[in-house]
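Severity: low
Component: inverse-folding endpoint
Summary: output formatting inconsistent between runs
Steps to reproduce: submit the following structure tokens with default settings.
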């Protein structure tokens, strides 16, 4: 009983000290991948990004597994106030599990967006998101990904009826066999 009480206190303390699910802080030069949700049950979302990316080419790879089968989708963006300023970042590609995300630009060419949907996610399989591009010295990007589990296969009413009738016939056959009487 004492161990149970101590574990309950430890759990409450860890929940109070845990960071808020809505808080997203990207640290310079350190790619971040923050997950919200239970990877074994239900919808899962993640925030990815990097800030303060050094001058030159970069490639960030995020690897993860989800203990469900379903589909993933997401978007990623970067923007600058002045084209080719030190905070400008050009993303050349965003690839999720080998599928290339679609790139879109704003009319002023100061923001670029990447989006993708219906990416197959398989139970327990390693998944990757790779973001590659060119930084002019202090670039940053951020994005969101969402995983939606596949709908559970629920049998149709006709299948249920055939199963019930089948079990009934098997039970009836077993009962009629046990009534057979043998004389010596």
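Observed output (run 2 of 3):
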């Amino acid at each position: 009983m004492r161990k149970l009480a101590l574990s309950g206190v430890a759990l409450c303390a860890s929940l109070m000290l845990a960071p808020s699910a809505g808080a997203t802080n990207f640290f310079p030069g350190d790619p971040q991948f923050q997950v919200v949700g239970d990877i074994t049950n239900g919808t899962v979302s993640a925030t990815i990004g990097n800030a303060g990316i050094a001058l030159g080419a970069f490639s960030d790879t995020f690897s993860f597994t989800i203990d469900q089968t379903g589909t993933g989708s997401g978007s990623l963006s970067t923007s600058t106030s002045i084209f080719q300023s030190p905070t400008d970042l050009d993303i050349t590609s965003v690839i999720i599990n080998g599928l290339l995300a679609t790139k879109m630009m704003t009319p002023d060419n100061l923001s670029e967006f990447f989006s993708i949907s219906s990416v197959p996610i398989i139970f327990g399989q390693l998944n990757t998101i790779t973001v590659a591009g060119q930084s002019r010295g202090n670039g940053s990007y951020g994005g969101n990904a969402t995983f939606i589990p596949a709908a559970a296969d629920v049998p149709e009413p006709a299948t249920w009826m055939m199963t019930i009738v089948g079990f009934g016939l098997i039970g009836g056959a077993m009962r009629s066999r046990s009534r057979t009487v043998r004389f010596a």
